[in-house]
Write a structure and sequence with these properties.
Layout (H helix, E strand, L loop, with lengths): L1 H29 L11 H12 L5 H13 L24 H5 L21 E7 L4 E6 L4 E8 L2 E3 L11 E7 L4 E6 L3 E4 L10 E5 L5 E7 L7 E8 L3 E8 L2 H4 L11 E4 L7 E3 L5 E7 L4 E6 L6 E4 L12 E2 L7 E5 L4 E5 L1
Parallel strand pairs: 8-12
Antiparallel strand pairs: 1-2, 2-3, 3-4, 5-6, 6-7, 7-8, 9-10, 10-11, 11-13, 14-15, 15-16, 16-17, 18-19
InterPro entries: WD-EF-hand_domain, WD40/YVTN_repeat-like_dom_sf, WD40_repeat_dom_sf
Protein name: WDR64 protein
Keywords: Repeat
Length: 342
Amino acid sequence: ALELIDFKNALEQFQNLVKKMIIQKTKGSSGLYTKDDDEIDYDKFYTTTQTLFGPAVKDQNIQAFFRKIVSNPDEKPEWPEIFGCFLGESDGMSSPSKETMVFLESEKQQITHSVVKRKDLIKGIVKVPLLHFTVTASQRGVLTVFSKQRKSFFSYFFYFHQDTAWITGCDFLPNLKYVVAVTESTVILWDYKPKESQNNGFVIKPMKNCLLCVSTVTTAGHLAKDTILMGDDKGYVYLLTMTSDDFIMKQSKAEKESQFRFMDSESFNMPKRKLHDDWVVKIKYISALKRFASCSTDSVNSFVLDDINRLEDNLPVKEFSVPKGVNAFTYCGKAKIIVTGG
């Protein structure tokens, strides 16, 4: 009972503190308030709140509460927010532990291997659930496979791309078992499997426009074939189908053993269609919908969602416009919605 009385007193003092602060902010914005020693700045608000409630309040909640009052004195926050609790529309007060926690630290796993050097960037991360590994590609040409063989063990392989062009995206070919990456002027197909040599694979070039993104078309029933979607800086979307025979028939000899072999892009039937009037920022095949999706910074043809057959004909495509375009999107199968970010 005594603790309850003490808390009610502390809460009353806190609410008076907030009222006084709101009055000062309101008068200050209208030019009627003159600053004096009694002004409640952040330091004074923080110290008073800590004195009233002690360790029950966290620094980040005090900061958030103070910012809300400063930014909008007319809509003062509810007092439970100072403890990290937020009132819902129907379910009342939510649990502080669930509200403030996003990722539990025990569920995190850190990869300690440094796969990129300074001034390099990771440009693509692809998870391959069936094979229990993750593929990454860096801007300066490091392709890496993290294979989860044990709980805390990751094996990794590198390909240092000798071209001056930067890597712009990557994906995995599930049937041919190759890593695919695109640069500004080439398509890289990396065979990560041979452990005696890391530089095994193929480079398809030249590509006329700058490639910006890549995605694999995941379909069942083609054990020796994979289809690749790519987008470029001129608004074109490409469709490239690779078979195991291509690696034998269309390759040129490498200068040395264990080197990437070159393929002429002209030797492939590579349908393409201009779907956007600006950069194709992201492309993805959504297997649940049996459709591909592409987005662009184009304000008119911002997002396209249609069958891959549309890349080989001139029939209209399903699209919508967003001012200043779409930079990212994702599909949620459970909710059956596509979310875009501009």
